[in-house]
Input
Amino acid sequence: RGWLIDVVPFAAKILEAAKGVTVFSSSNPWIRGLLMTLAELYNLPDLKLNLKFEIEVLCKNLGIELKDIEPSKLLHKRQKPRLDGNPDFNVKAPVAAQPQASSHSGMQQQASAKAPGDLNSIPAETVIPNLAAYIQINKSLQLFQQQPALARVVPVAVDRAIREIIQPVVERSVTIACNTSRELLTKDFAMEPDEKRVLKAS
Output
């Protein structure tokens, strides 16, 4: 659970380093098996887009087409992971119940009373406080000239993008920092008999 966010980029970098090596070409059974597994992962429903992007970039760097790789058939033999709260997958939250018609019409009237281009009218709290104040939209863009009301949607889209990427990025950064610290400690204090000094250095 949550391992693909680290394993897929790691495997992609290892395979990319084998580019140009005759022994480790795409026809190598070991390399072919890994590519087939990545192709099967790519076809998983609701897989995070950044993981799919890693696989696409790998295939491009290796000079092969993803569609030409036959996906393996290994994952169906394993237990399906829990998707709820899993950073490897995009799982949409359940849609809340619709309010009554009277209250809905009242909210719609209040929303229509606001200026279409008001960037401060964001329906929910954002990750970054007052996010709309930091967003500047080029007024020369034809899309926003034709539909000025879309300007209110931009902060919401940016906020959702931040929410989607922030958890795996933080988890990955913490994992890398912990592993790096552990390797440095075991290297620099390999002959240190005092456990307290090692703990203090960590």
